[in-house]
Amino acid sequence: MQVKSYVPILALLCSLCFDRAHADSAPLPPIDLQGVREQHVMIPMRDGVRLSAYVYLPEGEGKWPVVFEQRYASLTGSGTRKSSADLARRGYVVAMVNFRGSQQSEGTYVGYRALAWGELKDGYDTCEWLATQPWSTGKVGSFGSSQGGFAQNFLAVTRPPHLICQYMVDTGVSLFQEGYRIGGITRPLRFEAFKSNCRNPDDNAALLREWDQHPNYDAYWRAEDCGLHFDQMNVPCFTIGSWYDFMVQGSILSFQGRKPNATQQLLLGPWLHGRLNKGSKVGDLVYPNNATWPELEHMVRWFDHWLKGVDNGVEKEPAVRYYVMGAVGETNAPGNVWREASDWPPAATETSFYLHEGAVLKDTSPASATSGTSYDCDPLHPMEIPGRSFPGAKDTRAFDQQKEVRTWATEPLTKPLEITGAVQAELWVKSTAPDTDFIVRVSDVYPDGRSILIMDYPLRARYREGFDKQVLLIPGQPAQLKWRIGWTSIILNSGHRLQVTLSSTGAPLYEPNNQTGGKMHTEWMQETQTATHTILHEKEHPSRLLVPIVK
What we know:
Elements: H1 3-24, E1 37-44, E2 50-57, E3 64-71, H2 78-88, E4 93-98, H3 122-131, E5 136-145, H4 147-158, E6 163-169, H5 175-178, E7 181-182, E8 185-186, H6 188-192, H7 202-212, H8 219-222, E9 237-244, H9 248-258, E10 264-272, E11 281-282, E12 285-286, H10 295-308, E13 320-324, E14 337-341, E15 349-356, E16 360-362, E17 372-377, E18 384-385, H11 397-400, E19 406-409, E20 417-431, E21 437-445, E22 451-460, E23 479-492, E24 497-503, E25 507-508, E26 531-536, E27 544-550
Parallel strand pairs: 3-4, 3-5, 5-6, 6-9, 9-10, 10-13, 18-25
Antiparallel strand pairs: 1-2, 2-4, 7-8, 11-12, 13-14, 15-16, 15-27, 17-26, 19-24, 20-23, 20-26, 20-27, 21-22, 21-24
């Protein structure tokens, strides 16, 4: 269907259903939006399904550019309503739109799949509907973080004619790697709870059963991998990534993939996952005030230039700005400064830190003929990492000291050490089980003993040769695993130590592996196997951390 014929149909459908949409929606609790008008509308899609949206219009009559966010989560909280109105007061119509089948939106909930480049293109249809409304100038931008970031990458691939620019915070590219799976680890308990977002909770259960049929990275998951379609993403985008967020990999990859096609800028700072939280207080740390990023004000500058034609110079600012973290609370500690670059990552020297006997981490490889560190693992009694969010910038000692957790640390540094770029782990392991998970955590240990978590990332052993196939361990035989743990930019001050922590469980953040080597499905913990795992640190099988060092 061509855009010329389709857009008027959307506009007509909207005019017919607008009043009924208001009647169908229960009024929200009264809230002072300081003159901004709040309306609930149902936006028609090409198959007749209508998506629930809350629209915020500035005072007065006129035409304004439109900016919108797509979420499956609720849009009716006072914080969301107030921040939407705040943006509207800057001279924009703001639309907050729920995914198909979530909250009040009609249709079957299928996660992000209806936003993609298939038969349904809900992001495309939403953008074009907003562009044709009487209060719209026809210029549309998108914004949002996490789910609202993923949605924007899907949107960019479909290339709606009226989409002019985007502003993404803590975004993602591949849902196999950064959503439903992490390092191959399935998360059925986490996503079972998503039924609370669904208009029909049974939709979520059906989706989980569908995922069970696709344990490997196959055509099903490629259909939700925006990274395969960067050549289609041709709009300017400002992307924010947060060092203390496992999804920083998505923010960086998105910038790298889009850069050849349109103006792209990347900002990387010392924050946790989320939107409107880019301040100086992060986890257990308080950074200097220069760590704060004025997200709303900068987003308005970005939109003002691309959607209103304001010559404010924002498009000429550096392609990459990144915050080099340093120790906090230490006088004259190096770091805690912003740097600029034309691309990412900057030049660095990959340096190996090897695991040794006695919990020691060194830059020399082990010489022992036979050496390893073992621990037991019972999936029914996992080690604990509380919560469902990555606990970055927090003291990890409560986890490090648990029974089946092992740590290795350098001697106190005699001079500062800068790490900027991607950190990788390369492990040689043995196990008595055919499968397990390995969780690698990297910390900055302060002189007072605090072990501040910089990053972590797991790998399910059966995927050590690629996520498109499963290769089980041979019990008792050495196997090599190599994967990226994360991105960072940090200067460890003299007197600090670099620490590596290893375990095979960390629940509920990472749901346990049953270790049987059997099929992964929503109820796979009904049968489990205990095991002993050994991390090898010997001459023929050296385990190490690969670290990008900047001199």
